[in-house]
User: Which sequence fits this backbone?
C-alpha cells in the first residue's frame, strides 16, 4: 500500500497529550500498518510554523519522503506530484490518498481550523487531482473541513471538485486501458493465490 498525505503539517508526532491516536500522529501510525513501507509514504505540501525541527527530524527517522511547499513552488506542481506518485506506486498494489484542507491556500479554502498561508491553489489542487486519478487510487479521505469557517461553502465546493476530478481521471484511465481498477488488481492477486497447484506426473 502506498500513501500520499497532502497536508501543510508533517503529522509525525509520536503522541500528543499522552495519546498516540491524534491528528498530529497519522504518519507515525501509517508506517505501522502491515503492508505499508515508509519508502512508499509521501507528505506533500508541508509548510508553516506547525512543523518544528523535532517533527522534521522525526520524518527523517521514519524514512518517509517529504515534498515541502517550498519545493513545489521551485519545481512546480506537475513535476513534484509525479515524483510523489512514482514514490507511492513503487512496488505497491494500491494507494491511499488523504487531502487535508489546510494544505490548500486559505484564499481558496478558508474552511479549516488550521489555515496556513502560502498553500496549494485551487487550480493546482485540481491538476494534482487529475494526476492522482490518472494513476489510480483505491482509497481517499478529506480532512479538516470546518463549515463554521466556510460560510460561502467555497472549501466544500473545492473538496467536491477534488473528488470528481480524481474519479473522472481514474475512469478515463481505466477506459483507455492505462490502469486497472482496484477490483481488477485484487481479483488478479486472489486468482493467483487460489490457482490449484499443478500435479507432477
Assistant:
Amino acid at each position: 500500500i502506498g500513501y500520499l498525505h497532502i497536508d501543510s503539517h508533517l503529522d509525525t508526532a509520536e503522541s500528543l497529550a499522552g495519546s498516540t491516536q491524534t491528528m498530529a500522529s497519522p504518519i507515525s501510525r501509517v508506517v505501522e500498518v502491515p503492508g505499508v513501507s515508509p519508502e512508499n509514504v509521501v507528505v506533500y505540501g508541508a509548510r508553516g510554523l506547525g512543523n518544528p525541527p523535532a517533527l522534521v527530524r522525526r520524518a527523517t527517522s521514519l524514512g518517509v519522503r517529504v515534498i515541502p511547499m517550498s519545493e513545489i513552488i521551485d519545481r512546480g506542481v506537475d513535476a513534484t506530484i509525479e515524483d510523489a506518485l512514482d514514490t507511492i506506486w513503487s512496488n505497491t498494489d494500491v494507494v491511499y490518498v488523504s487531502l487535508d484542507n489546510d494544505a490548500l491556500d486559505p484564499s481558496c479554502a478558508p474552511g479549516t481550523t488550521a489555515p496556513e498561508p502560502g498553500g496549494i491553489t485551487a487550480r493546482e489542487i485540481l491538476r494534482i487531482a487529475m494526476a492522482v486519478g490518472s494513476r489510480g487510487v483505491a482509497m481517499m479521505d478529506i480532512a479538516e473541513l470546518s463549515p463554521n469557517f466556510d460560510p460561502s461553502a467555497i472549501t466544500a465546493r473545492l473538496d467536491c471538485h477534488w473528488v470528481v476530478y480524481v474519479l473522472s481521471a481514474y475512469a478515463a484511465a481505466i477506459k483507455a486501458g492505462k490502469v486497472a481498477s482496484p477490483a481488477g488488481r485484487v481479483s488478479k492477486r486472489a486468482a493467483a493465490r487460489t490457482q490449484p497447484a499443478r500435479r507432477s506426473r
The longest helix spans residues 154-175.
